[in-house]
Design goal:
By secondary structure, the chain is mainly α. The chain is about 65% helix and about 5% strand. It has one domain.
Length: about 350
Amino acid sequence: MRAVLFAAIFALILSLVGTPIAIRFFTRRGYGQEIREDGPKSHLVKRGTPTMGGMVIVLSTIVAYFLAKLVTLKAPTPSALLVLLLMAGMGAVGFVDDYIKIRNRRSLGLRAKAKLIGQWTVTIVFALLALHFRNAMGLAPASDHISFLHDISWLSLGPIVFVLWSYLLTAGWSNAVNLTDGQDGLASGASAMAFAAYVVIGVWQYGQTCGTSAAAGCYQVRDPLDLAIVAASVMGACFGFLWYNAAPAKIIMGDTGSLALGGAFAGLSICTRTEALAAIIGGLFLMELFSVVIQVGSFKLRKGKRVFKMAPIHHTFELMDWPEVNITIRFWIIAGLCVMTGIGLFYGGFEAHW
């Protein structure tokens, strides 16, 4: 259990130390953020802010996890390694996207097809491996069932459909976090809270494991404590990065960070058997995603008519002259409420079993 605390502390320190180093490095190299021309004009002052800061989050998470395992003399588990693989793989796709933006000096990076292929490749590797590596209880890092608080027994997908389901979750959460990353500190702060929820979930599942057979009021998860360690690492890295990413941001995480965080969130939801519960915990991210879906759908189906002044929805409030800091704080409140609701449902489900 100490490893959870160690991982959070290590990731926080690494992120706090590593982010200013990254700021100086990216500044010297001229790796600055490009701003979309059709966005709020107030964002134009952010052009040139060092980007690709998500590299710090990814590296801090991975190093902190292995340091925590080294200090506690425990071996890494397949579940944790697969979530880290998914996070790093999605971060690599985001890195290529960011680099193309910087090289071409435009706000558009990878073409949609190329990004799709990259996300799809990473997800296939994760999903196929996650159905293997069974332990003595016969549990694999993931199952081919859709889950809420546990696997839903009658919602078995089969291996092939499970791969498609995994891609839907990974691509969906990655894009949702990416859309949320439109204001200083918004995505990093909301992500820290969301991953804190998975620290609680992993630790609780570890304390209420089913052992060798299933029973009411317990959980059949292969490596819950190690998943909590991964979540603690991501949480600590996000908090450390937020110190420099808060308004006015000295660095931006870019697609490198947002795709990586979305991948890690999807991986944790799959491996902890809480895929549907994640929709509540990450409610803010879904709100941002659906605002874009609604906006695009309305524009195409209603001949150019829009529902919002601008999507994602946080831009609508900017166009209503809300100060950016106020929007960020209020959206953090929404994120916190979603996290508390998710944890409440998780604990309530455990109580109901008893």
